[in-house]
Structure formats: C-alpha cells, structure tokens
Please model this.
Amino acid sequence: MRNEYLLGTDIGTQGTKTVLVNPDGKIISSAFSEYDVIKPKPSWAEQWPDVWVKATFDTIRDTLEKSKVKPSDIAGIALSGLYGGSGIPLDKDMKPIRPCLIWMDRRATDEVQWVKKNVDKDKIFEITGNYVDSYYGFTKMMWIKNNEPDNWKQISRFITPKDYVIYQLTGENITDFSSAGNIGGVFDLKKRTWSEEMCKVLGIPMSMLPQQIVKSADVVGKITKEASKLCGLLEGTPVVAGGIDAPVASLSAGVLEEKSHVAMAGTSICWGVVHKGQHLSPKLVSFPYVAYDDEMIYTFGGAATAGGIVRWFRDQFCVKEREAERDLNISAYRLLDEEVEDIPPGSEGLLLLPYFMGERSPIWDPDAKGTIIGLTLYHTRKHVYRAILEGVAYSLRHNIEAGLESGLELAEECIMVGGATRSPLWMKMFSDVTGYPIKTLAQNVEAPYGDALLAGVGTGVLDSYERIKDWVRFDKTIYPDKKAKKIYDQYFIEYKKAYKSLKDIMKRLGKIK
Amino acid sequence: MVYLLGLDIGTSGVKALLISPEGKIISSKTESYPLATPHSGWAEQSPRDWWEATVKVIKETVSNNPIDSNQIKGISLSGQMHSSVFLDEKMEVIRPAILWSDTRTSEQCKEIYAIAGGLDQLIHYVSNPALEGFTAPKILWLKENEPENYKKVKYILLPKDYIRYKLTNERFTEVSDAAGTLLFDVIKKRWSTGLLEKLEINQDLLPPVLNSFDLAGRITKNIAEQTGLKFGTQVVAGGADNACGAVGSGITEEGRVMVSIGSSGVVLAQTNNPQADQEGRIHLFNHACPDSWYMMGVTLSAGMAYEWLEKKLFNHRLSYTKLDQLAEEIGTGSEGLIFLPYLYGERTPHNDANARGVYFGISGKHDQRHFIRSVLEGVTFALKDSLELIKNKGVKIKEIRAIGGGAKSRIWQQILADILGEEINLLNVEEGPAFGAALIAGVGIGVYSSFAEAVNRIIKVKKTIVPRIQSTEKYNNYYKLYKKLYYSLEEDFKELKNLTSST
Model:
C-alpha cells in the first residue's frame, strides 16, 4: 500500500481533527487540537484564521507521527471546515483585516431587516434557493460594510476558513461549490455560480468573492515547500478542495443517494438530506452537495443546541453524577439516562423549548429563549433532564417537518452521527419522536473521514465515491415504538404551539437592559 | 397579674400560647395530629383529634409553669378556615371534617355558580367566588354524596368554633370565620338568607354570629376539672387564622398590609371600606377588629416553591443558606430568567388549577444561581399580583409588614422591597395566629381598651428594608412580562393538563 494513504482534516468551530486512513477506510491514526471561539459580545462569534492554520498544521504533523506512515506514502489530503459566515476579509496582499464572523455570529440583524424590507423574498429564494437570516455569510459581509467602512475599503476578497488554510498549504486561492453556496444571497444555486444580479442588489462586489469554484473532490494544488516544513507532508503532496463540514460528515456516513438523510447531533443538531433540487424550502439551507456536486443538492436544518444543553444541565444540576463519574468511571450521561429511563414519554407533562442559544431553522429566531413549561411540585430534576432530551428530539422533528412540507422526499430511515449517538435512550427517543428508524455508525469519525474519502477520489486512489459504502459499518437499527410516537405526536403539537404563544415575550425579554 | 391564652387549631396541629399583657411569651405548647387523604384531592381530619390535642396543650400550659391558673383571665381561639364539622342533634361528630385544602367539590362549585346566577350574583351575596375549599360546597357535597349522613346533620361548625363549643358548651361562630363559609353576607355581617334559600340550606344548621372580640362563653366545670383551667374563665370568640395572624402582626388599621411568606404566600390588607372584587380574584373577609374587613390574595406556592427547588431540583444538595448565598451573587432580574411559581395551580389572581410552573427565558449564560434567584423573584411577582389588586380596590398602602419563613431570608426581604417598590417592615414578634388570638382575648375581657392599644403597645417594627429604586424600575419591566406569560400560556397549560390525564 505504498503511496496510497489518505488524510482528512476537519476544521471545526471548537477544534480541528485530522485522520489518516488506508484505502480500505481503516483508521490508522488521528489527532485533535482544541480552541475557543472569540465572543466579544453575547451574539457575536469571531475567529482569527491563524488559529485554524496552526491547528491544521499541528494535527497533520501529530497524525503522521502517530501513524508511522512515511510522508511519501500519503497520496493526498482534503479539508472540510466550519461554515465561515462572512469568510475572512483579506487585503490585496492576502492579509486578514479583521477576524472572521463565523456561522454562530448573529449580529447582522439590521442587515436582515433591510433585506426583508428591500429585497423580494421570492426573488432571492428563486435565485439562491435560500432566504435570509443573520446566519448567512452575505448578511455578515453587509454588516462589515455598514459598520466598519474603514475595513471595508481595504477588503480585496473574502475567503472561507478552510480555503484560507488551503491557501496557506498550497498558495492557491479557490473555493468549492458547497462553501460558495453556503454564503447564500449571492450564489445562484441552479447555475452554480455567483449571481451578478444579487451581488448588485445586496451591494457586495463580485470581485470580493472567490474567482474559481471547484468540485469538492478536485485536486486544487500541492503542498508548498514552506507548508511542508510546518506540517510534515512532502512538498508536492496533492491537496483536494473538500467542503462544508456538515455535508462532508453526511458523506462519511455513506450518503450518496437522493432522499438519504442524516442528523448530526453533537453540541448542536444539523439534519440534512441529499436531493436533486426539485424542492427547496425557504426555511432550510441549501447548497451543492460534496459528491456529484453538479447534480446533487444538500438541504439542511440546524437546531442551535442539542448536546450543549445536556452538558449545561449536567454541569449545573448533576454534582452527584459527576462525582460518581470520577469515582466509578461511569459517564455521568449514562447515569442520568438510567435515572430517567422509567419516566414515561412526555416527562409527565413537562415540555422544554431548547432555544437556549436562540434558534436556527426552521423558526430562524435569534431572540428565541429556552423555556420549561408544566412544572408541578411533583416534578424532579430527572423530569427536567428527560424533558431536555425530548425537547431536542422535537427540534429535530421540527426540521424534518419543514423539509417534508416543502415537498422533499426522505428515505425510510434516518442516519444519526455525533456524540449523541452514545446514548441509546436518546436514540430511541429520536426514533419515537420522529417516527423514523434510526441507524447509527459503528465508528463515529464524521467529517475527517469524509475528507479522506474525497482525498482518495480526488487523487485517484479510490475509483469512485461509492467506495464509502465499503468503508462504513452500521450498528443495529433502532425502530420507533408506535405507542410512544402517539404520545410524542401530541406533545410535538404543544411544542410548536408553546413557541408561538411565547414568541413575542421572548423578543421583549431581550430588550430589558 | 393577668395572663391571656391563645389557642390556634391549625392544619398540622394545635398551639397554645400564654402571654402577659405586655406580649411576653410565658408558655408555648404544640401538639400535632394526622391528616387523612382517603382519595387523591381529599383532606380530612378528626375533630376528636383536635379536641384531644387541645386538652393536652392546655393541660401542659397550666401545669408546666409557675403561673396560677386563676391568673389566666381570658382565652380566645384561632383556627383553620372553611373546614366543616358536621354534628348531629346531640352535638356528636357525624363524619371526619372536610378540610379547607380538600378539592373534591369542583362540581358543587359549578352548581353554586349556576344556582346563584353566576359569579356576579355570588359576589353580590357573599363577596367571594366559589372555591373548592370553602364550606358551602362541602355541605352540598355531603348532601349529594352521603345523604344518610346529611340527614343526621343538625349543626355545622368551623374547627375553632367546635373546640370553643367543647370548652364552653355554647354554640357560636364569629364574623371572620363565618366570612369563609360562602354563606355569609360579608358586607352586611349576617348570614346570606338569599343564598341559603337558593342553595336550600337551612339557616338553623348554622350558629349565631358574634363579633370576634365578644364574650362567647365560660369554661365549664367539667372542662375546668379536665384541663386545670379555672371554672368560669372567660372565652372570647376569636377569629379565622388569617384574621388572627393579621392581628398578631398589628394589621388593625386602614392601610396596613401584611405579606406572609409561608408554604403559601398571603397578602392581606385591612380596610374600613369593603369592596368585593367583581372577578373574585381577591377575597374580602370580615376582620377581627370592630367594623373592619380585610382583602386577601393568596399565591399557593411561595415557600413551597423554594422547598421544591431545594428538594426536587437540587436534591437536598444545598442548604437554604447556601441557596440564598448563590442567589445573592446574581443581579436583579436573574439576567432575564423568569419563573412562574404555579407549581400547584394558582389562586390569586388566576383561580386556575391547570396553571403550571415555568422557567422562561433560559439562555447559555444562565447557571444554577439564576435558577435559584428567579424562584425567589417569581414568587414575589405573584405576591405583587395580589398587592396590585388590593391597590386597585382603592386601599391606600401606608405600611407593609412581612412575616413568615421566607421573610427571614435577607435576600428575599430585599427582593420583596425591590419588587413591591415599597419599604418592608420586619417585626419584633412573630408568633402567628395564636398570638393574635391571645390579643383578641385581651381586648374581649378589657385588658386592652382597643385593638390599636393592644398592637401598638406590643408589636414593634424592628427593621425596615428600603427598596432600591434602580432595581424596582428593572423589576417593573420584568413584572410586565411575568404578567403576560400566564395569559400567553393559559391555553397551553390546559392542553398539557389534558395530555397528562389522557396518558
């Protein structure tokens, strides 16, 4: 197996992970490097790109060292990345001007209002396949324009996080279809290129957007001499474009066919489906998929919190379980699962809206707030925990429902990946709440694994995307329980109603200083 | 030397409190008795248990201190309101008393509204709405569900009136307790013959009504022998526990308000100008002082909500002192976390058994401390609801006095002052209704010339908590949202209730 090892690197919001696999998909080694998001204000989230570059170099080097594989046996590397929001504004010398406003950043509320008022909803949706929210990168570009005119004057171009890292590795300045499409607003989804018309309407010069858009499996350049010194890969090693982390993670779960849908449940939830673009939803986010890029569309919805709330609850209310975790080496989450297993579906009348960080799709409400409704003297901490798990499952169903409403067709089973899959109880709940059988993967590598596949396809080590099917192993499928589903159906109606009841007060609450 | 004995026939037990006319506590004895819940929502007690416990605490009071029972010149009683004692022609108890906290009578309440001609008419007759806990629906319940027992009923008494009957052999009630039967014309201070007729309840079942401070009888020979009290000792009528509690906190003149944070929360304001709330959100009852009334709002889970937090949400992990400390680390308004304390439904102002507890506005920045503080704030908002209704009835607030377990917490005192936007006075004595009963005994037998003399001599403000203007302004904004939350969720509460009862 000389010269056939593959590297995949995923640049995430909280950390970067690199894996090295052989052509059969066996993981040889991996490395992870963690970092924090810069949050200067409550709804702001930024990052200087050097953090990503360093983490990428470090994890590549660590992975190589751990693997004992010779750098000369590495066939290539592909990279995926977090959704970079605005992207990094660069000057004409390719120097960052200010930190990148990443996807989590929600400051561009005035810009969103402006678009809603001044741009026809049907038109923007017709061209881009998306609507508007402060999540989308184009609103963040507009924010910089409106609020930092001095910076704006210096900007020569915007570049996404992983494309900036690729630039540092290869000296090439490109982007891929998924990354371009995710900016929304200025990308023509059907023509798969920038929309001159929308650029004009929104006041974003087309010259600031990457000139070259490639497929995710395309080789875009080679490791430079300088980069070689920093990451340990040989000069000349091929670098493959990769894409946005969510679809790449879907790919890592073997998703290639229309209708296949995957929910990634980690800190937040991202649920996405692959299709040919006949049906799009203004409530969901759509951009080209990372395999069969010119044919397939990836449409996804994202709940802002999932594991995030579970962890928050563990840290605030579960001292006993954390002690047991230390003393007995059993995960606190597992203990909590055992404690709430016997509480019936619906948590005996407790309903939780999981909007602890506002909410993305399908309600797109940055002012949304977490709420626990239905407490009585009888309810305990355990009920609240179960209500959290259920609330997150409702948020997944809410997104799936938005997809179905727009006419999207879904496969009979839903694949789930991410940290949440470690909880069988939660998986059961996701199945009972959504009504879909849930399939989980035997190993949870996610995006870096998909990157390795793209590296293999791009460099010719693998003959097609279909090889992923040989790589992936599934656990036993979890089937929904009809009785539980019936109960959850009713709570889900309440879930949606309660938000409507509280929406206005949530907005007003945010205004109290 | 003269001493005064106050008895309080409570729900968990009886208390006998012996005081000097200066308010000095000579002896305090309590004895508990059980509460039976034969079905969910039922609550019953045996009047015999009350009586045996009362005899016991009186005996202990008389025997275990150096005072000669000759010197106990006056006795009076306080008692749990509404609970009904059904008696036959020999004044024997027919069945266990149905307590104020019993909720079996929802159907009968509906009937009362229908028969009376709606809420308006009912308020016109008795100044109060029909709540499950009141006496009238219990009488109808007995009539409909235990006709054999009902046929035997010759007399109906309230708990402390029954005990007074046992002490004196005289059958009376007085205005403050009669007010809670839903059969009493609170404003005209007499049984509502109009409503009694409509409900087909014979007025002869009910005892004559005295003023709270009237002499109601004397200790009989038999009881004197049994208890060690002096034969012929004067027994003064006394009052409902809320009225006596108010007297014991000096709430005896117009504009004085009592806020009590016990298991439930009570806001009570004395008034000389009775105005019933047309929507029945606050109660109007007769007070123990001459020609006076009080308005009262009740929030069902006050201290109980904090206890729930300590027990159920924090699993006894943190002491109340520690909870208080953690709450103190967080600023006014818990950074936007709002708690609705309707853990047991709510009385004032919603009269809604379906209402539920809510934590609203949770975001990533909130930690356990916010969850603690917002409970204190939420309960206090609920108290403010009652105070606002009372203010709307034209009562001019001159002074607010806080009592009860919750009022002992320093942080809760400040939150109370800040949310109500008023100075809060804390008192030198906090002995509850039994203390008020002893003062009523004193007024009744002439130890004090008036209620004013009694309370102003004994009850002093020991500390005043001043509201912080900036906090008050901020709380006013949160309070607006707090109020809106219930109305926004009213339907959702109902539907959640249906979901839990169908599964």
Notes: DSSP finds 17 helices and 23 strands in chain B. The first strand of chain B starts at residue 3 and ends at 9. Chain B has a mean pLDDT of 96. Chain B touches chain A at residues 301, 304, 308, 312-315, 317, 333, 336, 338, 343-344, 356-365, 367-368, 371, 474, 477-478, 481, 484-485, 488-489, 491-493, 495-497, 499-500, 503 (CB under 8 Å).
